[in-house]
Input
Amino acid sequence: MKKNILIVLICLLALNSFAQKERKFIREGNGYYNDGLKDTTKLDTVSFGKAEVAYRRALELKPEDFHWQFNLANSIYKQNKPEQAASEFEKLLDKTKDSLEKTLVYHNMGNSLLAQKKFDPSIVAYKKALRINPSDPETKYNLAYAMKMKKKDEEQKKKDKDKDKDKDKDKDKDKDKDKDKDKKDQDKDQDKKDPNKDQENKDQQKPQENKISKQSAEQILKALENDEKQTQDKVKKAQAQRAEKRKVDKNW
Output
């Protein structure tokens, strides 16, 4: 009997020592966490980092404690590690059935997602928190802020898309201009290589002074034929006169 009592006392002392260590780590974690909150003008990642270490030591002694896990997730978030924090908060959803605790988890998970600019998932998280506690003013504010940021992001993306379209249009215009310039340059190069074409271009640029119409040409030809006929008639007449003279004249 005494032996059994001794074993029970040893177990109680061990549990007490175990609990004291756990509380010690939790007190340290809470102290470092509060130190990190003192200066609101900057992010004290050192203090929050020490808080994370202390909470992890407490969880080694009591792994399933919801509150220490929640504090651990918060200390990670405060170190500007929203992705890791969101993962930790998500794990907590299956570890509590308490409505208040679930509200806190959804709210903080929404903050972690919003910090990553994951607007749609953060909005979902805030709405789930408000379904449990519709009167929470902080969650209402964060939900409205997340929706505003989502709209702003969509508008910016639309502007960027329109700018890209305008840039593509300008590029196409520049390409067309380059094509026209290249064609002109090619024509110039071809003119240099082909002297006949160059002469032809020069001839085309000269005033068409020497060209006459078909009618004028025919008139000129007809006039020439008349002149030639008159000349022939004169020659024949002169020949006839000389022949007459030869008849009356004596031959010596």
